From TrEMBL:
<feature type="domain" description="Choline/carnitine acyltransferase">
    <location>
        <begin position="193"/>
        <end position="775"/>
    </location>
</feature>
<keyword id="KW-0012">Acyltransferase</keyword>
<keyword id="KW-1133">Transmembrane helix</keyword>
<keyword id="KW-0443">Lipid metabolism</keyword>
<protein>
    <recommendedName>
        <fullName>Choline/carnitine acyltransferase domain-containing protein</fullName>
    </recommendedName>
</protein>
<dbReference type="GO" id="GO:0016020">
    <property type="term" value="C:membrane"/>
</dbReference>
<dbReference type="InterPro" id="IPR000542">
    <property type="entry name" value="Carn_acyl_trans"/>
</dbReference>
<dbReference type="InterPro" id="IPR042231">
    <property type="entry name" value="Cho/carn_acyl_trans_2"/>
</dbReference>
<keyword id="KW-0808">Transferase</keyword>
<keyword id="KW-0276">Fatty acid metabolism</keyword>
<dbReference type="InterPro" id="IPR023213">
    <property type="entry name" value="CAT-like_dom_sf"/>
</dbReference>
<keyword id="KW-0472">Membrane</keyword>
<dbReference type="Pfam" id="PF00755">
    <property type="entry name" value="Carn_acyltransf"/>
</dbReference>
<keyword id="KW-0812">Transmembrane</keyword>
<dbReference type="GO" id="GO:0009437">
    <property type="term" value="P:carnitine metabolic process"/>
</dbReference>
<feature type="active site" description="Proton acceptor">
    <location>
        <position position="487"/>
    </location>
</feature>
<dbReference type="GO" id="GO:0004095">
    <property type="term" value="F:carnitine O-palmitoyltransferase activity"/>
</dbReference>
Amino acid sequence: MLSEKLSMEGMGQDAEVQVVENPLKEALAVDLEVKCTKRRSIPINKIKSMPPVNSKHEWPYPVAKNFPGRFERFSYRTYNWCENRLWPVRPLPFLTATVAATAFQVRDLGVEGVREDVQKLLKPLAISIGSIYTAVFLLRHILKYTYFSYKGYMFENSKKPSIATMIWGVLRKVLLYVAPPQLSSCDRLLPNLPLPALQDTVDRYVESMKHFMPEEVYAKLLEMSREFVANEGRSLQRYAWILHKFTDCYVTSLWEKYIYMAGRYPLLINSSVAQCTMYGPSDLIQAYQVARLLYIETIANLALDRQKYMAVGDGIMSTRHYKNIYNGCRVPGKNYDHFQWNKPAKHVILVHDCTWYKVDICDSNGKMYTVDQLAKIVAELMERDDKSAGFLRKIASLTTDRRTEWCANRQKFFIDNKHNRHLLGLIESAQFVMSVDGDLNWGVESTEQLSKYMKDMLAGSGSNRWVDKTMNYAVDASGRAGATGEHSPCDGAELDHLCENVLNVDKQVLVSPSTEKQLEIIKMSTEEKKTLKLAEKLNFQEVDGMESEINRCFDQHQKASDDLHMHSLAFTDFGKGRVKKCGISPDGFLQMAIQLANYYDQGKFVLTYEPGSVRFYANTRTETLRPVTDASCKFVKAMLNEEATQKERRDLLKEACEAHVENCKEVMTGKGVDRHLFVLCVLAKGLGYSSPFLEDYANQKWLLSTSNIPNMTNSVDEDISENNIMLGASFGAVAQDGYGICYRFAGNRAIMVHITSYNSSPATDSDRFGQHLREAIHTLADLFDEEPSNNNISKDV
């Protein structure tokens, strides 16, 4: 398939990168780490029937006491529908103005006159609505093409902003004061992603490739690029221009279909992304931790449905895909999958000892269960002796199969069986899936233990993940919690936002009872067994051929999991603080360390992927940031040149990081090359064009795939304690002979890096790369010390 042929970025590493020094920091809410605005949280003393909370911290969104009924949900969704089409005018002022204008027009008729002839009211009402909405429409379009389209501040010195930037900053403050946006209030005001000029894209791409091929091969690429621009490229660009003019984003629909939904590969490892908890141990027993996560995530789900989640970047960034985090499910197809969105469900799915249960999060009247009540339900579930037996314990392994085969098995074993179809519907419509694992004895005491834990979060056991669900949580016996995310419906930044809010509430907002108190809480009385809705076991029926297919899928996944080589590097010597003191971009610093480590590991420069943010534009996801530049290559070569001085190396590092920042700015403002070329590839394939240039582009392999996990909320202070450090995320390497590197700066204390490769490849070794990277990080930092330590990387390559 085209998606597999393009092999763009492995579907698992699209957390967004922000490395732009932003002027007017007090006026602008988006900084290097995509900070979100801290809106006014609901006062703790106004919330009733909720768990004990820490008075120093507040919930990041309203806390619901009841699950919304049909009328309530219809009401707030209708309000939000209006809000998203009227902002910065609110629905209530719009309605008030309409009524006032209508009343003014019919003032001479009087109340009796209007009653006698209602039709006399319709024309004034239509005039009022039309005139007022026209004014709102014009205001919104002025904002769209000025305020939301302005990006000049990204390219200016923060200490000397231009007049245009200062006006923009003042307008931002005014808008936030007058009409603080909800999650998606501004989504329809974001400008469309620009379509770059064909020649610019081709030139940028060709320039980026010169470090990866011999001169004669590069000369051939240059010739192919000239022929492409002069011939089929022009026609394809015209079709791309038409697509650009008639859609809000000319990339996203094609990207989701051909990169994600057309992929026939198994999702775990290839498309999944692991999200993990904090470095420190949990202070909750397993049943109580499960219950607390059920409660927190249900509250978050309802807040998201009400559009009360934080507005990312005060509304100047796209939030189109947040709705896909909960409730939805990817559905396999013969040739293409599709995403099925569902309204918030009143149940979740729990997996304990390979047995599947439906757990309701509210009573029959819609009143939300408390954490303590949910803990009792979970504990009762865990103590049951009704566990599944035989091959049905591994029934979820069917979802780990290749998508075409899973589509056929889903039809045969579930859709065609009335009983199993009902159970499948419960799973696919659930808010999320949570696995209650056994005593795995994992921790962060050693690299080996941490790597094993991260590998399980990415790959699962083969029987405890319903892979199609966007979120699969996992809580082990120690109370440590993580998650496996399905990447197609949303990007890493959305998942990071979700996880940061969970950790904030779980670790800082809610008060943890003592262990003794928790053990007392989970005990269920006879009366509570009658009043609480206990977990409902999903008893799947056996179908002919099911056993052999389950065993095949399970064994197949075990082989894939065994081939995955994970190395988790918890670098706690220093963090972002020391890097910033050097006066360079933290992301640029680590990217250069990765380049240096990779050159030492492979002895050459390789095509490197890093996702960059383009979410300033409507309905966008990511663009490729290519970290290998002339400046980065000069720096690496200088580091391996014994005759180069420390000053020369330091200057080259600064130049490389500056080039990286400028590259990121170009990407963020829609001047990337890869999504544009991808669209041209799709159009060429669909329209029957033969293009050697595009074929060559599509066959390039990302041997080094990297991703920086941004800090979305800054709600967890990781500098307080080592236990507050968040482990970050991981994803599978894109190429069979390549590496997948996911990293994040844990405040000023640490750098968390998770490296994946495949044991079957003789060219790669995650442990080896991890050692090179540790040495490279020290080496780069030492360039700024007066007396460098002896951590310099070896020069022998």
